[in-house]
Amino acid sequence: MGKVYEGLNDRLRSFISAQPVYFVATAPESGGHVNVSPKGYADTFAILDDTTVAYLDLDGSGVETISHIRDNGRITIMFCAFSGQPKILRLYGTGRVVTPHDEDFERLLKLFGPHPGVRTIIVVTCDRVADSCGFAVPFMNYDQDRTLLDDGRNAGAGNARRLQRSQNPRASIDGLPALAGNETDPVHLRS
Question: What Pfam families does the record tag this protein with (predicted)?
């Protein structure tokens, strides 16, 4: 049976830190596509306090999460146990996109491990923290993180394309604005 919590207690914090992957879900205010993104690298997620979390947004293929957060703020982060006791934990809340131009960006950036290709930081104020059983989630073995995202940024592959892309406005697949030109610099910015 699921339970709703007032915030992240020590047991939930331990559960989060033990998960090698989490999922981020957002949707536009009206119409459009729902987006769910898997996130890896355990050192890209930080718990700021009992009801506030953040994750490092690395440059990737799309800007759906940024676009949807700027559209309506709604976001859900889900962790699920693929080993050990079955459990699913969802953090429902309101997200905020923190860019390198924001005053708290440098302070937040220090909370994460070293990664190239940093685009933004997503901060979520949780208004509901709830778990459920996870009885149907399969057992899966975690071997290691894929390093392709970091390796590609360290090797400089595609840097010209990323630089050009960061200098132009970017939008979601539904045409919602996400990033203004030169709002981020994922080619040169590292955590």
Answer: PNPOx_N
Per CATH, which fold does 3-136+144-179 belong to? Pnp Oxidase; Chain A (2.30.110)
**Residue 128, H or E segment:** strand 118-132
Look at residue 95 and give its three-state secondary structure: strand
Each as own residue / partner, the long-range contacts of residues 139-142 (CB below 8 Å, 24 or more positions apart, any chain) are 139/82, 139/83, 140/82, 140/83, 141/82, 141/83, 142/20, 142/82, 142/83
Distance separating alpha carbons of residues 20 and 143, to the nearest angstrom: 10
Quick: pLDDT tens for 53-99: 999 999 877 899 999 999 999 999 999 999 999 999 999 999 999 99
Q: What is the dihedral of CA 118, 184, 95, 122, to 10 degrees?
A: 10
Cα–Cα distance, 75 to 182 (Å, whole number)? 25
Which amino acid is present at 17? S
Alpha helices in 4-155 (DSSP H): 10-17, 64-72, 105-109, 148-155
Distance, CA of 134 to CA of 92 (rounded, Å): 17
pLDDT at 145: 84
**Is the overall model pTM greater than 0.70, yes or no?**
yes
The enclosing H or E element of 165 equals helix 159-166
169 vs 122: which has the higher pLDDT: 122
